[in-house]
Design brief:
2 copies of one chain form a homodimer. Chain A is built from 10 helices and 15 strands. Chain A has about 350 residues and is α/β, with parallel strands linked by helices. In chain A, the strands form 3 sheets. A 7-stranded mixed β-sheet of chain A has the order 1-2-10-15-14-11-12, sandwiched between helices. A 6-stranded mixed β-sheet of chain A has the order 4-3-9-7-5-6, with helices on both faces. Chain A is globular.
Chain lengths: ~350, ~350
Amino acid sequence: MTERIGQRTLRFDQAPRILSHAAAVGKKEGAGPLGARFDFVAPDDRMGQKSWELAESELQKTAIRTALQKGGLSRDDLDLVLAGDLLNQCTGSFLASMQSDVPYLGQYGACSTMAQGLALGACLLAGGAARRLLAAASSHFCSAERQYRFPLAYGGQRTPTAQWTATAAGAAVLAAGQPGQGAADGDLIITHALFGKMVEMGVTDANNMGAAMAPAAYDTLSTLLADLGAQPRDFDCIVTGDLGHVGADILLTLLREDGIDLSPVYSDCGSLLFGEKQDAHAGGSGCGCSAAVLCGPLLRDMHAGKIRRLVFAGTGAMMSPTSVQQGQPIAGICHAVVIERSGA
Amino acid sequence: MTERIGQRTLRFDQAPRILSHAAAVGKKEGAGPLGARFDFVAPDDRMGQKSWELAESELQKTAIRTALQKGGLSRDDLDLVLAGDLLNQCTGSFLASMQSDVPYLGQYGACSTMAQGLALGACLLAGGAARRLLAAASSHFCSAERQYRFPLAYGGQRTPTAQWTATAAGAAVLAAGQPGQGAADGDLIITHALFGKMVEMGVTDANNMGAAMAPAAYDTLSTLLADLGAQPRDFDCIVTGDLGHVGADILLTLLREDGIDLSPVYSDCGSLLFGEKQDAHAGGSGCGCSAAVLCGPLLRDMHAGKIRRLVFAGTGAMMSPTSVQQGQPIAGICHAVVIERSGA
């Protein structure tokens, strides 16, 4: 069962476990500072497919397949897939799981989709609605760029606040905790979740997503810390995904005004993914960015004991090319899960 | 908690209640055979907005506001909104809830979205992850037509198997069952849920969604009946939403081959929505079709005692204009909930 703490934080009394996980990324992401710590780096972002949309789907499929393999599992072991991406109608995700013969629930949380899937999945497992499920998310620079911005061949200039949509996918298999049986030493468990509200502060610039998302991250992280009666230092790492450099600065400033200094434990998936010389401007973005950084480097660091208690706060910008063209504001959203490495 | 019965059916031991519900529809839908039984019929499908996307969002907002009002509730009473639609990035839904200050989880199940929200919502309530939540879905003929098919002014011919995207929205507020306390007489409760698999049988014609979705409805309904050890006659009504005339025929035929005669209790939301003279070809479709037919006429019939036990099986076609143009197959999906009127 799930218990409510404080205002909105959910605590799982039998914490769901992360059984296995995998990250698959494109060539540019593989050449970045985290490159060696992903499970798969595509030699070619086409992934052997005829279109960018199919390439994205193939990348998500690769992450799912690898996560299952690493856990010694097959698709038959899953009760449910929760997946989503940035493409219209979440094309990358439904194509990736179309032939899988596993119940499927499409999720749309923009770049927060991986966090949404993990938070929702943990609730379903804790409540007995599934025994084992998979959460996945993906994005692809080429499919996103032509859908959201300009034709690829156009070569449009990017603003300094623009983020670079990551060609990346992440997948994690979660399993229900066993009744009356604690997690084993070294198990990664999801202890808490918090579903985010849309927070809209008047941003209408689709090239400044960090500014649109930071207030939502502020709302979610403030609420989580208050509900838990915790300080940032109670965690080894609090990571947003993906505010980029611009949004991360805004988040730190907003929290500092409340007397909360997040900086000693803070990272952002969008800031981590690309190196300074990779011309990614304000950093990485896209559903796949936080999904791959979590399901690759961050969870690896947890297995290695380098991170024992992690807040993964996935951030998304609720907008569509149509809504932006029609002058509608862009709201941010941020869903969070607390992941712990159990035992000594 | 949630218990698994048979292969895939979920049973709720404290069945979540449907506290209130509302349906808002467009002019054509209001002029159809069910017109008098919706809560709101738009005098003008523009809904006073400058674009069709904003009109759809306003329609969903109207359904949500009306459902809350009918239940004597405010948005503050909700822990969560689960909503989705057919527009790119689910624009209609995120705009409808953007200023609501309620945690939001975007759902994408194509036309099955209302059933997905109800099934998922029931699991979250049964597991303690929320106390009260709202599920909503919408569609709009004009926003869908120009996104999926042709510019409105083009006046393209429609094939006989094509369905008419309904201008409609439905919303339902669900609440957790009380521990150790049965439902009161006349309460509507969700007793079971089943999450559907994508079923793909090689259909690639975006103007024949009924054929693409019927095999998924067959899979879900066969599994549900087998898991419950039930016959169609054990229910007063088994309704799909929305196979339309073509898909409904295929579903009945597929089940008949297994010796199951669904016809005495079977209806389809897409077939119910429009009259014969309304030129809707194979019937209604769109997330709003099944959402409005359920949250208007069907749940009203349950309150009136005309239907005591209902299977609501929402069907969707997993495709995007891009996936269809790239020659990818269209998979159907079907999520189901069992709704009962408790007491004598």
